[in-house]
Design goal:
A hairpin with a 2-residue loop joins β6 and β7. The protein has six helices and 13 strands. Strands 3, 4, 6, 7, 8, 10 and 13 form a seven-stranded antiparallel sheet that branches. Strands 1-12-5-9 form a four-stranded antiparallel sheet. It has a two-stranded antiparallel sheet with strand order 2-11. About 3% of the residues have low confidence. The chain is 24% helix and 25% strand. With 273 residues, the chain is of the alpha+beta class.
Length: 273
């Protein structure tokens, strides 16, 4: 398969990303030719060649400049080289798919929320429910409080989907650095028709979560799925890419084992607030 992101195209994309960084007021560091090559290789293997769903592939292609911008932010923030999916010691892995634990959800996106026990994994209808927050089972903090991104992580969010076979989230909303963003209308249930492609909500402009960014995300499930007290199961998931410093990429299980709990200062990936 011919390369979609050759070095020449990536150098032009980096110029676009540099201009975008100036507009956003964020500090970046350019990637070298070697880093751009590794970035392009990881991007294609993670998000183009390995994804069977064409709409998701197209989503990544449309947002490739923003993903490259996140790499430039990560290089400056972590003062280390971008070194694709399997980085050398203390270098930066990425771009790689966003892992749920890096945002404090749990082992996977299906872990959801600590208000309910791990077997139940459900939300109530007709009310705003916490999704990404400090009160999950993994984070162990206060429900409804934002998480804070550590210095060894940068995430770029380009969309949302849902892994449940019958997705139910109607609206999602992010509060970033204390500023509540407009709602994202997903209508996953209405779009998840038999034979239809997996429903996806694409962001017009990516969210980039870097060091000390605080993030709170909530979801709303319509009462059409039951009375306000009814519990409903659904598994929203972030679509995008992450850049993570190598030590955390050796952590297979984010919870189990003495001294191997992900949140906190050891890995500097995610914190409670």
């Amino acid at each position: 398969m011919a390369a979609i992101l050759g070095v020449g195209l990536l150098e032009r994309l980096q110029a676009d990303a540099r201009a975008l960084a100036s507009d956003l007021g964020v500090t970046t560091r350019d990637l070298t030719a070697g880093e751009l090559t590794r970035f392009g290789r990881s991007f294609e293997r993670q998000f183009i060649q390995n994804l069977p769903e064409r709409p998701v592939v197209d989503l990544y292609i449309r947002h490739k400049a923003e993903i490259l911008l996140a790499a430039m932010i990560a290089k400056e923030q972590m003062d280390a080289e971008i070194d694709d999916e399997q980085p050398a010691s203390n270098k930066i892995g990425g771009p790689v798919p966003i892992r749920a634990c890096w945002l404090g959800i749990g082992d996977d996106w299906e872990d959801i929320d600590s208000i309910y026990n791990s077997a139940q994994q459900a939300w109530t209808t007709g009310d705003c429910e916490n999704w990404i927050h400090s009160g999950t089972l993994l984070m162990g903090g206060t429900a409804g409080h934002a998480i804070r991104v550590g210095e060894n992580a940068v995430h770029v969010i380009i969309g949302i989907d849902d892994t449940h076979p019958s997705p139910k989230v109607e609206v999602a909303q992010f509060t970033i650095d204390g500023k509540q963003k407009p709602i994202l209308e997903t209508f996953f249930a209405q779009r998840a028709l038999p034979g239809a492609a997996r429903p996806i909500k694409e962001l017009d402009n990516a969210y980039i979560f870097k060091k000390d960014t605080t993030v709170l995300a909530t979801v709303f499930i319509s009462r059409a799925f039951g009375a306000p007290s009814a519990l409903q199961v659904t598994y929203p998931r972030l679509i995008g890419a992450s850049f993570i410093k190598e030590p955390a990429l050796r952590l297979q299980d984010p919870v189990t084992g003495v001294g191997r709990i992900l949140p906190g200062t050891r890995y500097e990936v995610v914190h409670t607030t």
